[in-house]
Amino acid sequence: MCNDVERRFGNSAATYEAAADVQRRVALRLSDMVLPHLGQRKTVFEFGCGTGLFSRLIACGARPAAFYLNDLSADMLAVAKGKIAATCSPGSVIDMVGDAEVMPWPSADAVLSASAVQWFNSPLSAVRRASEALRPGGIISLATYGPLTFRELREGLPCSYPSPQDWELELKDCGFQTLAFESFLLTQSFASRMALLRMVVRTGVGSRGEKQSASALHGECRLTWQPIMFVARLLG
Q: 34 FRET partner, CA 20 to 30 A, in 13, 40, 176, 216?
């Protein structure tokens, strides 16, 4: 599955941002939530950076001395680094290609991610991994998607994405104090199934290990997204 995800996102590196409307809105909102809490965070680690929609907001808004950028796709990571270099100079940008669910994480003052952790086999494990990588008082800020996401494509099958309550409980169990937490629904409309499928191809989106099909959609197509985003501080 890891190789399949890498291939899908690598193939969409050049088209992702033009089609990623929901991801752009999520990145903007998450940056508004987290930037007031970053302060002078010297070392920031972002996993699943994609083409850097969120990364550029953090680089320009917080200007970390060391910005570790991770993505499964080397093609996506190259786009992100190039766009950061073209917009601001935050300090040292270190690229880390690989699967963030299993690879070592750098010690950091902040662990961030937008629209990526849902690809983990165990998304909630990111909270535990962040608690181990963060220095005392460090910040975790993630945006992901809840179990109502893409409900139109699952043909009645349940979704394994963690709920907002699952994330809140995991943060508490791992020693975090929640500073901000939001969950809401967004609906995208498409003129046809073909238009919907074009968005899927251009962005590489989808669920990991779950059946999805556009066959149940007729006429005008709608897609539900359930963004979940939060900012929390590691106690102790």
A: 13
Give the chain as a 3 state SS string.
Answer: CHHHHHHHHHHCCCCHHHHCHHHHHHHHHHHHHHHHHHCCCCEEEECCCCCCHHHHHHHHHHCCCEEEEEECCHHHHHHHHHHHHHHCCCCEEEEEECCCCCCCCCCEEEEEEECCHHHCCCCCHHHHHHHHHEEEEEEEEEEEECCCCCHHHCCCCCCCCCCHHHHHHHHHHCCEEEEEEEECCEEEEECCHHHHHHHHHHHCCCCCCCCCCCCCCCCCEEEEECEEEEEEEECC
Beta sheet of 43-46, edge-to-edge order:
92-97, 66-71, 43-46, 108-114, 134-145, 227-234, 176-183
Residue linked to tokens 């850097």 = 52
As given in the structure block, the two tokens for residue 166 are 């699952």
Encode pLDDT of 126-163 as tens digits: 999 999 999 999 999 999 999 998 888 777 677 889 99
Q: Residue 168: which pLDDT band, with cuts at 50, 70 and 90?
A: very high
Q: Which amino acid is at 22?
A: V
